[in-house]
Amino acid sequence: MRVYSNFLQFQALSFVPLIFLYNPVLCVDTTAWFNIMLAEPGRVGRVEIVNGNTGRKKDMLNRATVYAEYNGRKSECGTIAVTDAETIKGQTYTVDCEGKPASSVRIVQKYKWNKRKSLELKEVRVYAHVATSHTVEIVE
Questions:
Q1: How far apart are CA 67 and CA 24, in angstroms?
Q2: pLDDT single digits (tens) 35-77
Q3: Which residues fall within 8 angstroms of residue 131, CB to CB, at 6 or more apart?
């Protein structure tokens, strides 16, 4: 895959919040995951995730990985390292996707918590710049 962009122009662009999710999510499966489809393909700047737990279950989110997906290909953005904070602000994590092209963002938990793979999210924000004819072009 080739990605074309005017880098200087791209740096000057601001990322705007594209998706707000306020509903709590609980997913229990062989691999726990959560997927957000973007309205249009674009470049993901950062993903902010609010842990669904601030108490003793907060480690359920530890080592979850965030991916930017485009045309069926996953590109890893980063992994969450849960802290000991017990406030919502302290349990809000930012993963930098560095402008990776994406049509969706996926959060995956491959590790077990309390003998099963679980993922509980309170809020997810994706900050992205959507491709338009005069900004960033994503070409395969």
A1: 20
A2: 888 888 889 999 999 998 888 888 889 999 999 999 889 999 9
A3: 40, 41, 42, 43, 137, 138
- 66/77 Cα distance (integer angstroms): 5
Q: Which two tokens stand for residue 139?
A: 């070409």
Asked if 115 and 60 count as a contact pair (C-beta separation under 8 A), the reply is: no
pTM value is: 0.74
Tokens representing 97 are 């996707």
Q: Are strands 92-109 and 32-51 parallel, antiparallel or unpaired?
A: antiparallel
Using CA atoms, how far apart are residues 69 and 130, in angstroms rounded to an integer? 14
Distances (CA, A) of 17 to 47, 65, 85, 127: 9, 20, 25, 4
